[in-house]
Structure to design on (404 residues):
């Protein structure tokens, strides 16, 4: 990852997350970028220009003219100089101005003069973020070709908890570096990824679930997006964020919902990677009210859920690639080979649920990839994002071999 030689214009607007923009400046410089900062008048109430001038090693621009000597700060020149502009934090106010072409300060004027790509990292309170006006403006910015680095969920300056926190500076730098990476072997490809557990309702307050954290599936979605793919990520209930603009996320709860989301999208995809830990059974009926405690033992009758990977395997067209996972506690190889065949997969990623450092919740995984031509590759224990890159590495030649 590098931004070496790139000119990045950072636009800071007046929100509390402006303090995070100081760290963002530092990280951009660390990645080798030349950084200039333009601030709105309100931003100066939160962090002083001196902070940004020191961190960026460039004078900060806030006014059209230098009041001391009348020197003209040309927004046109700034727009030409910058390879990309990132507005972080972007308040609802600035987003509204950008979406409507209101050029009443140096930042919004420069935006209109930008030749390079513009990235926008919204930051505001949850209600402002969710407001239809803000959402409409964000949509308009996207439609105009800007890249939105979505706000994250979490604690907000108001004390409330919800969506509106600015994406972390590390995430923003990653998105920018990714944009400038020319090696995008999955450019033009659409990849479906399933991730996380499913919850199967027993009654309004209880469910049957599993310990899947979604880490592996999300790492795969990110690795595919970084390689240039448009990713459709169908996720069960997990506590994870996705800020990569190439990932479209569909949140589901049950196996049935995951089945519907995956089958509805597969036809338009070049490949699908099924990393979700889908419940195999669900209660045959869901109680309408909370089930009351009784003295007698209790039995819940279960019925099968649809097998998503199997359904995609049956629907698979020539040219499409299907990858599955096998999580086993015993007879790993034999079980994985059986699943590979039965579900018509191109390869299967076997991981052990009983090995330390592997499986649910861990940051690491040790996997074996078994291909449908019988080839077997054993990998050593790695971080899940590195495992994800190995999986994408195995997917690439299969996509390239097959005609679209
Ligand atoms: N899978 C799926 N839909 C299901 C069950 C599994 O898409 N209802 C997918 C998983 O995402 C994984 C692969 O099938 O890619 C194998 O999942 P796994 O749970 O290991 O196997 P099962 O087929 O469920 O078999 P078993 O639970 O008996 O091991």
């Amino acid at each position: 990852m590098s931004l070496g030689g790139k000119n990045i214009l950072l636009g800071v607007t007046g929100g509390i997350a402006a303090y995070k923009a100081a760290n963002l400046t530092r990280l951009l410089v660390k990645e080798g970028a030349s950084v200039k900062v333009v601030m709105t008048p309100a931003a100066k109430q939160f962090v002083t220009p001196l902070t940004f001038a020191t961190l960026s090693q460039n004078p900060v621009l806030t006014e059209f003219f230098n009041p001391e000597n009348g020197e003209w700060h040309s927004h046109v020149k700034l727009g030409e100089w910058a390879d990309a502009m990132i507005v972080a934090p972007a308040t609802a106010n600035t987003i509204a101005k950008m979406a409507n072409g209101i050029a009443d300060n140096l930042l919004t004027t420069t935006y209109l003069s930008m030749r390079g790509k513009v990235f926008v990292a919204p930051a505001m309170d949850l209600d402002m973020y969710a407001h239809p006006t803000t959402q409409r403006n964000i949509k308009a910015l996207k439609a105009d070709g800007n890249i939105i680095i979505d706000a994250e969920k979490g604690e907000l300056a108001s004390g409330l908890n919800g969506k509106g926190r600015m994406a972390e500076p590390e995430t923003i730098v990653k998105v920018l570096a990714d944009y400038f990476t020319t090696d995008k072997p999955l450019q033009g490809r659409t990849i479906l990824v399933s991730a996380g557990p499913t919850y199967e309702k027993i009654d309004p307050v209880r469910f049957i679930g599993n310990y899947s954290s979604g880490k592996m599936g999300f790492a795969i979605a990110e690795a595919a997006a970084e390689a240039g793919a448009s990713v459709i990520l169908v996720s069960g209930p997990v506590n994870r964020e996705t800020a990569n603009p190439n990932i479209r996320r569909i949140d589901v709860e049950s196996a049935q919902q995951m089945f519907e989301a995956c089958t509805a999208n597969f036809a338009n995809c070049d490949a699908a990677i099924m990393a979700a830990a889908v419940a195999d059974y669900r209660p045959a009926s869901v109680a309408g009210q909370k089930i009351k405690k009784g003295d007698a033992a209790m039995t819940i009758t279960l019925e099968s859920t649809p097998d998503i990977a199997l359904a995609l395997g049956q629907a698979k067209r020539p040219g499409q690639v299907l990858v599955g996972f096998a999580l086993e506690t015993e007879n790993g190889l034999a079980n994985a080979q059986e699943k590979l065949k039965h579900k018509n997969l191109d390869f299967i990623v076997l991981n052990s649920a009983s090995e330390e450092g592997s499986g649910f919740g861990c940051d690491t995984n040790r996997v074996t990839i078994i291909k449908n031509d019988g080839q077997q590759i054993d990998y050593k224990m790695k971080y899940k994002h590195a495992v994800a890159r190995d999986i994408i590495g195995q997917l690439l030649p299969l996509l390239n071999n097959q005609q679209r």
Notes: The first strand starts at residue 7 and ends at 12.
